[in-house]
Amino acid sequence: MKLKRNPSTEDSIKKKQKLNTEDSIDYTKSLTSEDAETIESGFEELDNADNPQAIKKKVPKTDKQNKSPKKFKEKTNIKNDDKPTEKPNWKEFKKEKQELRLKRKTQKCPFYEAVVKAKKIWEHVRRDDCPKEKKETLLKDLFKYSKPHLQTMVYSHDTARIVQWMLKLGTPELRSQVINELIKHVPKMILSKYACLCVKNMLKRGDAEQRKIIINSLKGKVYTYTLHTNSAKIMDLIYTTYATPDQQNAMMHELYGASSILCDSPNVLSFTDVLKNSPNTKDIILAKTKDHIRKFVLKQKTSMQTTLVHNLIYEYVLYKNGQECDELFTSLKEFPIELFYTSKSGCHLAMYIIWSANSKEKKSILKQIKTTAATLDLATSEYGYLILLTLFDSVDDTVLVKKTIIPEILKHLEAIATNEHGRKVILSLVAWRDSSYFHPRDIDLMKKGESLKDCKKDDNVRVKELLDAISDGFLQHILNNPKFWLSSGTMAMVLLGILKSCNGAKLKEAMTSVANFLIDPNSKVKDKIGKVPVYEHSGIHLVLRKIIGHDKILAENNEATFSEILSSVITTDTLKSWVKCNRACYLLVLMIESEVELAVKNIKSLFSITMMNLLKEQKFAGAKVLVTKLNSLATNK
């Protein structure tokens, strides 16, 4: 079958040919045989464009067929003509690179050679095996090379470390020289990422006069430096550690926006006093303070971790008495609660945030504490425990508290109980606002939130639910480890609070464990005079007296008492050692005075004629009182 050509294709080709013929130059003469074949194949493709069957029938040439032997020979000839490339000299190449790098560093840093020498000396100085005399000599040389360039070296990472080591290891004279060279540049250095660390060392290693000059050089820019990322922590360090009370007041006045107004009033301490002393400019100061607080809040973590900002916001809230601060509290609720427990004012501010929060916001705070595992840090912090106490007082959802905070307290119970502030967290759960354990100042502080907190549940109901949640965990720990709770007088006070408040089946088991530990002759604790029996320790003895004194209340409620448990485990051998100790005799007297029938009966049965004679031989006051009590029991019978 003969294939028909497409007329449109033919016309287009003829037109192209006519166009080519019009040119005066014949380009076809420059074409090779291979190029001509390529053009012909192109025309064939154009002819077959409208006939797909023809394209299918056409068999493509293989790679071997396409390659002509002539072409292959040409390629081989080219390869043979090429000369083999020589291998580069890598040592020279690296050497050139190093020289170029050194040249660039020298152009960038004019004192590069001095820095290199200083680094070599520094590597010897910082070693622990460097002799003291050699170290002093090297430090002098180090300062000699560094002195002309100190003010520039502090801005670089590696050279700033050299300056810090000179301040750390140098003699007092050398430190003073280094600080005097840099002291003029502190306002600029404090803004730098690395130079601010040198300022920190200057404050630590310098004398009182040098610190005063450094702090005074920052006067007038406290707000700017507190807002800056690098200088915020240095400003906080100055305020909390190195500044005098007058300098602290001046720094706070700048944050109030009232430094120019109060320049002659160094005795003005609080924000409220500032506004009282300047009634004409009260509105201006309030507006400036509010604007400063807004910018600090926008800056977020950098400034919000500083005591300066905590004090500023807390004093503003105190002046407003927690009212008209909803917008501020809403902004602060977005921050992690852990940012605030680094300072006293920060914790007090966190308390206001919790009091003003609704149930949904309190729930998010609790979940945040659980997620960050901050319970232990809060409980053992100097002021952070107040945040936990506020949550116990303010959260109606006690089930959520049981799931978030209570498990963490039980998990780290020993670490919390041994901490001075952690013990208050435990006691707040078992002895809520009991003046026997809490200072009136803490109780009054907690009562401040009564008018602010959003709570529907009654306080007594909330306290009981939390006590029920924690009771078994505390009693189980006492049952397993009575030695821990009777290791000191302070720990015994926490034990007293737990035994007086908790109830249930485990209470009797816990008291039995304590009683067995008391009668064990190997149970001894450290006192002022050395190791003594547990019942002879002054602090623990006082707690044991109070535990026995609580038996009257337990007896009225028909519950097991400590007196009957202790009297039932005392043996004849134990009693022989007890009657020879003054404080042990007083414990026996207290058990008789508790009027618990079973306890009185047990004690009376233990004193045979031989034991009474041994008791009468003792000359201390406790033995005489015990003899009198036992005689009165015999006559009453």
TrEMBL record:
Does the record carry Repeat as a key word?
yes
Question: What are the GO cellular component annotations?
Answer: nucleolus
**Gene Ontology MF terms:** mRNA binding
For the region Disordered, give the residue spans. Answer: 1-88
Sorted keywords for this record are: Repeat, RNA-binding
Q: Does the keyword Repeat apply?
A: yes
InterPro entries reported for this sequence: ARM-like, ARM-type_fold, CPL_dom, PUM-HD, PUM3, Pumilio_RNA-bd_rpt
The protein's superkingdom reads Eukaryota
Ranges of biased composition (kind: Acidic residues): 34-48
Mapped Pumilio repeat ranges:
181-216
GO biological process, alphabetically ordered? regulation of translation
Q: Where is the PUM-HD domain?
A: 117-474
Biased-composition ranges, Basic and acidic residues, are 74-88
* Name of protein: PUM-HD domain-containing protein
Origin organism of this chain? Aphis gossypii
